[in-house]
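Progress note, sequence design subtask.
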């Protein structure tokens, strides 16, 4: 048998703890939905008639629970965006909406951290947003709560230094979880280990060094971290 010889050590697999167990969820990739709450779309200058769109973060952007977040380089306007995160146990292409929730392993609370000034500059020039969304430590996440049945619909909220910033309900999403999975599967062949950040409600805003950030989704969990 011929053994594979790596020219460099292979990168470590990103993992997220599974709530209430000693197990971990291996992450293949991270897809994110943009502007999936009408009020947030309005505050960002979007059109309610436009469908949500997808962007991506690398798997190594994750920050697991219990870890703090370093303020990133090249920005003076870092923003918080709390989100419900879907973890997939199975994938496929062209998944029907009616079958989409069967692919779900569980849910977590996540933050899509954004270098808003870099995003604005990229938009002005018609350039990609990658540097504003997919930087190191841009995806803090809670432990994943295993789940079956209908997707969470309850309150989603975020605070900074104990002050409310975002407060809505997941049921306000324009596209629900099943529709998001189905639509993503038309653009990619989804697979076990994929995470999908499902969009953020209104109230996004800046965070600074020293801030204490917390997010929660009813029945799913909580996430807290400090910006260093």
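Output:
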């Amino acid at each position: 048998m011929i053994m594979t010889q790596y020219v460099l050590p292979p990168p470590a697999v990103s993992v997220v703890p599974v709530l209430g167990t000693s197990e971990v969820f291996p992450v293949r990739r991270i897809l994110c939905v943009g502007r999936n709450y009408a009020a947030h779309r309005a505050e960002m200058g979007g059109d309610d008639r436009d469908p949500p769109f997808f962007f991506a973060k690398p798997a190594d952007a994750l920050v697991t629970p219990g870890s703090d977040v370093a303020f990133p380089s090249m920005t003076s306007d870092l923003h918080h965006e709390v989100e419900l995160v879907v973890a997939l146990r199975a994938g496929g292409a062209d998944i029907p909406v009616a079958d989409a929730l069967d692919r779900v392993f569980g849910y977590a609370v996540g933050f899509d951290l954004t270098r808003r000034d870099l995003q604005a500059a990229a938009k002005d020039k018609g350039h990609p947003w990658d540097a504003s969304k997919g930087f190191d430590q841009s995806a803090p996440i809670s432990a994943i709560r295993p789940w079956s049945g209908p997707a969470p619909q309850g309150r989603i909220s975020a605070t900074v230094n104990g002050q409310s910033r975002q407060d809505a309900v997941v049921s306000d999403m324009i596209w629900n979880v099943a529709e998001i999975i189905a639509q993503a599967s038309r653009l990619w062949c989804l697979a076990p280990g994929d995470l999908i950040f499902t969009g953020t409600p209104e109230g996004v805003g800046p965070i600074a060094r020293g801030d204490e950030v917390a997010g929660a989704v009813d029945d799913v969990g909580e996430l807290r971290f400090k910006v260093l």
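The radius of gyration is 17 Å. Work on this subtask will continue into the next period as scheduled.
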